[in-house]
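Quick question about two entries, pasted in order.
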Amino acid sequence: MFLRQLEPRTARTTSEVLNFALWPFAVMTVLHQVFVKATNFNITDDFAPVYKASLAFLNGRSIYAENFDLVDPHYLYPPGGTLLIAPLAIIDPDRSKWCFDSLNAIAMLVAWYLLLKLFKLSIKSYAAPLTLLLMFSSETVINTLAFGNVNGCILLAEVLFIALLLARRELWAGVVMGLAITVKPTIAPMLLIPLMRRQWKVFLPALGVPIALTAIALPLIKDPMDYLHRTLPYSIQARDYFNSSIPGISAYLGLPSLLTWSIRIGMGVLVLASLWLLYRYYRHDELFFICTSSGILLLAEFLISGLGQQYYSMLLFPFLMTVVLRNSVLRNWPAWLAIFGFTTFDKWLLDHWQVVGRDLEYLRITFGWGLLLFVTFCVLGDRYLTARREGRLDSGIDPVFLLPEHNGAPVADAPQTPRIPVPDTTATIGPADPDDEEPSNAPNEAGVLR
C-alpha cells in the first residue's frame, strides 16, 4: 500500500500538484542537512566541548575549567545537564556526533509531525511538505545540525510540553519541561504559561526534576563550585560576539548603558501588554493562547536577556505555525519580514561596503525578533482599541470579519455573549485533496552553548 503512494501519476487537483512538487524538495532538503551539513567539517563546533566535558565527567576530571578569554564555543551546561549528556562519551567522538545529530534530526521530525497534529493539518495536505521544507531550509535547523547543538531535542520538549498542557497532563508536561530546563534553561520562561492557566501540578516535576538531577550530579563532579563561581556568571553576562540580544548588540556597537536599558525596558512593556491582552481575551482559545504566548515569552528571552543566538529561533516554530489560525497575529507582511530576518540562512556581508554589510548581518536577527514582538503587540492592541470603540469588548477582541452574524444585524449590535474562536485552517492550506482523510485530532554563527 505504501509503495502505491510512490507510484508516479499525474496530478488532478491543485493540492496534488503542490504535494508532488513539494515532497521531493522537502525530503531531499532533509537528507542534505542530515547527511551533508551535519557530517561535513565546520569551523564552529558546539559538540566538541560537550563531548570533552562528558569524557571528563566519566573519568572524574575537571569540567568547568574553560578559558573564557577565548571566543571558541564553551561548555556551559549546568551539572544536571552534564549528568544527562554524559553517555555521549561512551563511544568515539565522530560516531558520537553522528548519533547526536541523528537524535536531533529525529526530534525535529517528530516535533514537525506533532505540530501538524496540534494544528489539525493532514499529513496528506501540502501543508506537510511545505512546513518540513521551510523548517529544514532555515538557519536554525541547518546550524543546529552543522554545529552539533541540542536545539532539536529542546524543540521536541517544547512541542510535547504544549501538547501535554492542552491534554491536561500536567505532571508529564512538568517532567518534559524539567528535563529541558536541566539541559537548556533558555526555555524556562515557558513556565509562565501554566502559571497563567493555573495548572499548578506542572511545577512539581518542572522544578523537582532539575533539582533532583543537580543533587545527583554534584557529588559526581570534581569541580561543582566552579560552575557557580566561573561558568554561571559568564553565561549570564552580555558579551559583544555571537550575541544578537539587545545587550549583546549594544556591547558590540558601544551604546550607552542608559539607552540599552531604555530599549530593554521598552520591549519588556510590550511583552507585558501583549501577555495581558492574550490572557484577558484569548486564554480560552487554548491553542492560540499557548502558542502565541510561548512566542512572546521566548522572543523576550532572546532579546532582553544577556544571550540570544540566531539558532535559538527554532523554539519559535510553534508560534509561527499559528499563521494557519484565522485569528493569528502573523497574517500580515511585517510579521513575515521580521521572520525573514531571523530564519533565513542568507549572509548580508558586503565585500565593497564592509561596515554596512557587517551591520546588516549582525543586526538583522535582533531587528527581526524586535519587529515580530512589536507587530504582535500592535495587532493585539489594534484589536483591543477597535473592539472598545465599537463597544464589543465583552464578546472578545477578534476582528469583525471573524465574528458570527446574528440574523443580519450589525456586529456591534449583536448580543454580547462570550465565545471561543475555532481555528480554521482551510483558508491557509487550500482546496482539499479528494484522497485526503480527515485530519487527526490528536537560525548567526553560534559560539556558545547553553
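Here is the second entry:
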Amino acid sequence: MKKYLVGGAVRDTLLKLPIKEKDWVVVGSSPQEMLNNGYEQVGKDFPVFLHPENHEEYALARTERKSGKGYTGFTCHADPSVTIEEDLYRRDLTINAMAYDTHGNLVDPYHGQRDIQLRLLRHVSHTFNEDPLRVLRVARFAARFAHMNFTIAPETLILMQEMTHELLFLSPERIWIETKKALITDNPQIYFMVLRHCGALKILFPELDTLFDIPTSVVQQSTPINTENLTMMMLTKTACLTDDLNVRFSILCRDLGKPTFLNNKKNCIEYHDDRKLGVPLINNLCNRLKIPHEICNFAKIVSEYHDYLYNIETLTPKMLMKLFDVFDCWRRPRRLEQIILISQANMLGCINYNNYLYNQKNFLYTAFSIAKKIPISNIIEDGFTGVNISKELYTRQLHALKIWKNKNK
C-alpha cells in the first residue's frame, strides 16, 4: 500500500498558498484492506474512505471510462494494479494532476509544475472533454487565480468551446456550487467572462448572456457604458469591498431587466419599470439553479430598489422608511451593512470616496437608530390597539425622521 497526497493541496503548496484540505490516493490496496485498517467507507460510486483519526479522504487509485451523459456518466475501475500516474491522468488540469509521496517526492507526469511556472490552466489529456463540469471548474480556477496572472491555455479553451452541447446534462446543484465558489473569489467577473467566451453563458445563464447582446446603438440611448461591462465592472468593485455572497450575487443580477426595458422603450415603459422587469428574471434564474431563497430574495429587492442606494443622503423620510421595510431591516439589522456595501460599490473610485463612505454610512445608521428607538410601549399606553399600533408607530417614526432631517439641512 502506497499513499499519495494529491490535487489542490499539492498545487497550493507549490503556489505557496494556504492548504484548505488534504485529499489522498491509495495505490496497491483494496476496500477490504482499508476497512481492516479502520477506515470508514463513504463513497458509493467508487471507493472513498475516511481516515479513522483525522477524517481526511483517502480514495483508491482508479481509472474512469465514459459511459453516459454529463459529469456522472462514468464507469470507475478501482484495482490494486492501478498506478498513481493512471489515477492522475483522469484529472482535469495539469496543475491538479500532481502528487507527493510519503517521502515528499513530487510525482508530476503531466508537467503541472511547469504550467504553474507558466501560469497556465491546461488540460491533462483528450479525456478532458468527457466531463462538462470541467468547463465551469476551469472558469472558476481562472477567477480564483487571476490575481496570480493565470490564463487558460488556447488548446484548452478550444476544447471548452466544443463541450457546450453537454452542459444541459449538468445538475442545477452542481452549476450553483461552482458558481457560488467563483462568486467568492477575488475576481468573480472572470468566471462569467470565460463562460461567455466559450459559449457556456448563453446555455447556463441566458439572463446574463442577454446583457452582452444589447446593440450598442440602443445602449447608448440609455447609458454611456455597455450594460454587460457595467455589470462586470460593478462585480469587480464589489469584490474589492466584501466577500458577502448575497451582495455579490445581487450586483450580478441587478440589471437583468435592462435588455427587456431597452427593447421595449418605444412602448414608453417608465424608467423605474426596468427594475421590476428584472425581478421575474432573477426568480427564473434562481428557481432553475435551485439557488437558496435568502440569496434570491435579496437579489430581487436590490434589483427593484437599488436606485435608492446611489445617494442615500438624498432620500426623504418616506423613502428611508420604505428602504427599511423592503429590506426587512427591523428584523435583520445586517441588511443595513449590505445596503451600505452596495451603495459603496456604486461610488468606488470617485475622488471623494472616503468622505462619501463615511457620510453615507453615518447617515443610514443614524436614520435607522432614530426610527427604531420609538417605543411601542408608549403607543399602547396612549390607547392604540390592533392594527392602529403599527400605523401610529409608522407615523411617529416618520415624524422623528423629518425633524432630524430638517435639523441637518
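Reply: Residues 310-409 form one domain. The first strand starts at residue 2 and ends at 6. Hope that helps.
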